[in-house]
């Protein structure tokens, strides 16, 4: 089945809904008698049958919109000239195979066809001279082949499509973690339900809303929730579906889409990944794409041609707003831009509640702790996390998801698959000291996140891992916190040098050193947290997500300033390394005990780690002493 033949195929999971019967007339009981197809139908009779409804004919399935979904409003307005229709489940006669239906069609025995359920079911009226009444049969269709529509037109058969009710199955209750965006869209729903409430005082209904945010944050889900709440037709497609190798096809699809939208107003048009068609014109290397630019021009024209009260609202989603054409973003086309970012701790907890609604959780599972352990996770990541945990629980023969399954799933998603445990030996001992060094230095440095667990179980490329539990708001970080993270990152190398000697330092700290250097450089060049002063020492274009912009960025930094930056970065890293080595020297006995326990158990929880460490040192006092020593080193 070709993509161009799928004009009524929906991308959302819509339940099967009945088409509304807009007729009050009494229908005759369909016959159940067996029908034999007549040998022929006169050309004059076939030519006399004309289509009274033009919904499918205006769709133009030969041009096809790809995966465009259209749904019908709950309170549909029937055309006065339209004849009575019968829903597919109201047909009591026998079913007919698709091949047999084609035989009747070729023989000229098909009088009328009504398409239901997005073109997958047809109710067919057959005309047989041997019967005195209309015979209706139900046919299951393989989608909506373009050949079938052309054949119906050639035969002069009256046909029409009956879109489903606008039940996407999703409401605002299913959307969590993006409260600000939900508030904006609840206003859009009010526009669609009661436009006179706003137009009576001179307000203009927004023509377009642009959703901006990283992948997986719920942009598409929000658009479906609007359609589910407002009860209006919902047209959904991706920006890439407009683009073809043949020039002019994309522009034709845009015209067709908006023609159907205006015919079904009030309605919603959702364009996902609009950057595929809405990129800035003439900005690419090697010239523009004629087909893409013609499609964009047509899209701009259609959005500009709307009347203020047309009832058609365009919602688009992108994670690359910086590459969109400025003409597309101006008021009058996309009047509003709604940011849908990664959720915070509270948002992640709300999202987890939604995704855990159909899952059996152990009473010991705290969704708040899970939310704290998953900074940077999007809504899609959290859904995947809980699904992985459920699969893992089933694999282990459990009837509930426990903390163990959730922890293992987080480790798998973040660090990779679990590897084979190391055998006892020097390598395992060195890795144990390395990881305990991270945990010890982080715990004793004020401002660092708490240790969540330390493990010697390999994952991905890492031989061992130390996990930390982020604070309430990891997006707003102080200078003390960044310095503490640098100290914790250098704790592994510090343990190697103090315990085994500098010649025994290994390459295991390569990743740590890269992260530490990057954090220190950001302190100097981005955050203004060095002796150079509060300067922004990098061009904004050098941090752009566009590769071309980074290539063309001009760095106006002098050689002396570059040397000063390198010197300031080195100073931060050196003093953090001194603090880390001092922690290891002062707490060597506690470190040896922790390593012995870790070698035996292979995994230490944060509580177990702190309980053992507290037997040797007052953690609070040590943190205060570290703060004082850091001030002396800085001075």
UniProtKB/TrEMBL annotation:
GO BP: any one term: proteolysis
Annotated ranges, domain AAA+ ATPase: 205-344
InterPro entries hit by this protein: AAA+_ATPase, AAA_lid_3, ATPase_AAA_core, ATPase_AAA_CS, FtsH, P-loop_NTPase, Pept_M41_FtsH_extracell, Peptidase_M41
Lineage, top ranks: Eukaryota, Viridiplantae, Streptophyta, Embryophyta, Tracheophyta
Feature: compositional bias, Polar residues: 1-13, 28-43
Name of the protein in question: AAA+ ATPase domain-containing protein
Organism: Eleusine coracana subsp. coracana
Transmembrane segments: none
Gene giving rise to this polypeptide: ga17654
Functional summary from the UniProt entry: Probable ATP-dependent zinc metallopeptidase.
GO annotations of cellular component type: chloroplast thylakoid membrane
Family listed: In the C-terminal section; belongs to the peptidase M41 family. Belongs to the AAA ATPase family.
Cellular location(s): Plastid, Chloroplast thylakoid membrane
Signal sequence segment: none
Membrane-topology annotation of the record: Single-pass membrane protein
Record's keyword annotation contains Secreted: no
Disordered as annotated region, ranges: 1-46
Pfam families cross-referenced by the UniProt entry: AAA (PF00004), AAA_lid_3 (PF17862), FtsH_ext (PF06480), Peptidase_M41 (PF01434)
A GO molecular function held by the record: zinc ion binding
Keyword annotations: ATP-binding, Chloroplast, Hydrolase, Membrane, Metal-binding, Metalloprotease, Nucleotide-binding, Plastid, Protease, Thylakoid, Transit peptide, Transmembrane, Transmembrane helix, Zinc
Claim: Glycosyltransferase is one of the keywords in the record: no
């Amino acid at each position: 089945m070709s993509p161009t033949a799928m004009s009524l195929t929906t991308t959302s999971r819509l339940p099967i809904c009945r088409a509304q019967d807009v007729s009050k007339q009494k229908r005759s009981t369909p016959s159940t008698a067996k029908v034999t197809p007549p040998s022929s139908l006169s050309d004059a009779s076939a030519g006399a049958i004309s289509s009274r409804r033009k919904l499918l004919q205006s769709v133009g399935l030969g041009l096809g919109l790809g995966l465009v979904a259209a749904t019908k409003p709950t309170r549909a307005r029937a055309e006065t000239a339209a004849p009575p229709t019968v829903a597919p489940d109201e047909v009591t006669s026998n079913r007919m195979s698709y091949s047999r239906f084609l035989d009747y069609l070729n023989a000229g025995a098909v009088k009328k066809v009504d398409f239901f359920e997005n073109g997958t079911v047809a109710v067919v009226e057959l005309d047989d001279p041997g019967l005195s009444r209309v015979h209706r049969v139900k046919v299951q269709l393989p989608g909506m082949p373009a050949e079938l529509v052309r054949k119906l037109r050639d035969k002069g058969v009256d046909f029409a499509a009956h879109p489903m009710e606008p039940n996407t199955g999703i409401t605002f209750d299913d959307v969590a973690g993006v409260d600000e965006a939900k508030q904006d869209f609840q206003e859009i729903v009010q526009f669609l339900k009661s436009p006179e409430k706003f137009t009576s005082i001179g307000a203009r209904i927004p023509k377009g809303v642009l959703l901006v945010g990283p992948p997986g944050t719920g942009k598409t889900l929000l658009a479906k929730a609007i359609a589910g709440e407002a009860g209006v037709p919902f047209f959904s497609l991706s920006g890439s579906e407009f683009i073809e190798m043949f020039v002019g096809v994309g522009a034709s699809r845009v015209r067709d889409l908006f023609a159907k939208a205006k015919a079904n107003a009030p309605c919603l048009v959702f364009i996902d990944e609009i950057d595929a068609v809405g990129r800035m014109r003439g900005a690419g290397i090697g010239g523009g794409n004629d087909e893409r630019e013609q499609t964009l021009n047509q899209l701009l024209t259609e959005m500009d041609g709307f009347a203020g009260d047309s009832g058609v609202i365009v919602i688009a989603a992108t994670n690359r707003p910086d590459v969109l054409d400025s003409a597309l973003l101006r008021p009058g086309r996309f009047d509003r831009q709604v940011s849908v970012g990664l959720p915070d701790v509270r948002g992640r907890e709300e999202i987890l509640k939604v995704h855990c609604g159909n899952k059996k959780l152990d009473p010991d599972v705290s969704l708040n702790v899970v939310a704290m352990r998953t900074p940077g996770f999007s809504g899609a990541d959290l859904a995947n996390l809980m699904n992985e945990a459920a699969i893992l629980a089933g694999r282990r023969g459990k009837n509930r998801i426990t903390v163990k399954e959730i922890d293992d799933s987080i480790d798998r998603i973040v660090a990779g698959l679990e590897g084979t445990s190391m055998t006892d030996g020097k390598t395992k001992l060195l890795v144990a000291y390395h990881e305990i060094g991270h945990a010890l230095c982080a715990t004793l440095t004020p401002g660092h996140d708490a240790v969540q667990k330390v493990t010697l179980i390999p994952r991905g490329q890492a031989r061992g891992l130390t996990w930390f539990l982020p604070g309430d708001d990891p997006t707003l970080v102080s200078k003390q916190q960044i310095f503490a993270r640098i100290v914790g990152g250098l704790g592994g190398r510090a343990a190697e040098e103090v315990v085994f000697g500098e010649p025994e330092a290994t390459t295991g700290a390569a990743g740590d050193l890269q992260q530490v250097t990057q954090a220190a450089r950001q302190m100097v060049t981005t955050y203004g947290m060095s002796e150079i002063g509060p300067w922004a020492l990098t061009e904004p274009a050098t941090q752009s997500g566009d590769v071309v912009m980074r290539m063309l960025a001009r760095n106006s930094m002098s050689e002396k300033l570059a040397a000063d930056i390198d010197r300031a970065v080195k100073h931060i890293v050196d003093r953090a390394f001194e603090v880390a080595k001092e922690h290891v020297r002062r707490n060597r006995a506690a470190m040896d005990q922790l390593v012995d326990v870790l070698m035996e158990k292979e995994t230490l929880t944060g509580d177990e780690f702190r309980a053992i460490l507290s037997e040797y040192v007052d953690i609070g006092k040590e943190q205060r002493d570290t703060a004082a020593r850091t001030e002396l080193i800085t001075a």
